Amino acid sequence: MKTYKHYLLGVAVTGALAVGTSACNRELLTPIPQTSVADVSAFSTVNRIQTQLLSLYGGSSITAGGGLKDGNFYGGRYVIYGDIRGEDFINELSNLVTGADVWNLNPTNSTTAVQNLWQSAYSTINKCNIFLEGMTGGGAAVVCDALANQYIAEAKLIRGLSYYSLLQYYARPYADGNGANPGVPLRLTGIKGTGQSSIARSSVSDVYAQVLKDLNEAESGLPSTYTAVSDNTTRAHKNTAIALKTRVYLSMQRYADVVTEANKIVNSTAPFRAASGVGNQLVSDVTTIYGTAANSELIFALPMTNTSGDFPGTQNQLAYYYSPIGSNGGVGNGEYSLNPRGIIAESSWTSTDKRRSFIRQSGTGTSAKSWLIKYKQPTPYTDWVPVIRYAEVLLNLAEARVRTTNSVDAQAVALLNAVRNRSDAATTFTTASFASSTALTNAILLERRIEFLGEGLRNNDLMRLLQTIPAKGSVPAKAPTEPGYIWPISSSELALNNLITDN
């Protein structure tokens, strides 16, 4: 197996990502055990092609194979950084390994987070590129056309999501200059050896264009549903691509496009549900979303198991960061408590709201702290990582409708109510609740902070709106014009790529 310092062709198979059989399979579609397949034969059989595909989803810091589920990427830290850059968490241990400099808004090129997230994201992208080239180079002929189209679409969705994710940390928001600023290197061919790294940064606009191209092509090639219920959450399907496009367009402030995409999977009146493909909808009880099982609200989530190499790995796990230590009633390491002046202090978030059950207090008086216990599985921390939920699509659509109509839009209010009422039956908004479209937009943004606390979306929301990152604890506010508003480029990339420029 050929390797490059930062971009590995790994084929670690995750046990929770099983693939169903199909009438057009030319041999039994059961993943081969975790192994390595030489480039020359990696696409020679259906089993090996499938193993390559599953490795795009899989991967952890333990296997060092890259993949979306790597602990340094969507398996944990990408989500965590999206929260701790914002104002709703307080760093407790001052540990640089677990993101203290990210929380302080002062990471450098050589910061662990800056280097490892970049490396993991590009490793995942490289695996996608190599897979796509392998399919074009002969792999597509090994499987039937339907499977070839599906597998290619899955790889494109993962690549598109990876590039979008890089933009949220290493590039200026799209709203700053309409995407004209430097983005990230747009690598669309596989790296299999040395001397292939030098490439200049594409513009933010060009990278977003590639993200949308990947997601549009993914939507076309992905299946509407899978036979296995769990695959409808852990594998990409048409609704996954559509939902992610609502996120991408929201980040670009292309609100009319958000409405167009969301309307594909959100009917016009409550109760809201996807009318085609997977029947995505809100679950009735918010406390049942998280854990170790699929459900209708989790459009896309990354499963974890107790199998070695199939969980995020040391100091990457969501519960490890947010849950208090055992003596305080948790299962984690108590790395980040909830900011008492953050979202939990919001008076409109009522005490009877079910989402308040995700908050646990420890200590009394001046020693009192609050903790997020949304993720409850003990070591090795097998809570599935939510990538995108149906609740986000509803709130994306609500915000986009307000911004496109510049009004207190009735459907937007209904969408907001769907999310709020699910957890807080005592609170119901009407159009009369809001004096202006701005007041309704602010209510939707506030609902996002409550609903997605601990799910990594706070950074995205601050960036896309070019908002100042609020002060927290000892950390002062960070304005969009200040150094550190976005991350520097990884020092490893700067050393390897002589065409790259820093932020």
Low-confidence stretches: 1-23, 25-38, 60-64
Helical region count? 15
Radius of gyration: 22 Å
Domain count: the total is: 1
Please state the average pLDDT score: 91
* CATH-assigned fold name: Serine Threonine Protein Phosphatase 5, Tetratricopeptide repeat
Shape: globular
Side-by-side strand order of the widest sheet: 1-2
Helical/strand content category: mainly alpha
Q: Write down the secondary-structure element order.
A: EEHHEHHHEEHHHHEHEEEEHHHHH
Beta-strand residue percentage: 5-15%
Distance between the termini: 34 Å
- Architecture (CATH level 2) name: Alpha Horseshoe
Strand elements, count: 10
Considering DSSP H and I runs of 4 or more, what fraction of the residues is helical? 25-40%
Oligomer: single chain
Q: Sheet bearing the most strands, described?
A: 2 strands, antiparallel
3D structure, described in words:
37% of the residues lie in helices and 7% in strands. With 503 residues, it is mainly alpha-helical. It has a single domain, classed as Serine Threonine Protein Phosphatase 5, Tetratricopeptide repeat. A two-stranded antiparallel ribbon has the order 1-2. It has a two-stranded antiparallel sheet with strand order 3-7. A hairpin with a 6-residue loop joins strand 8 (359-362) and strand 9.
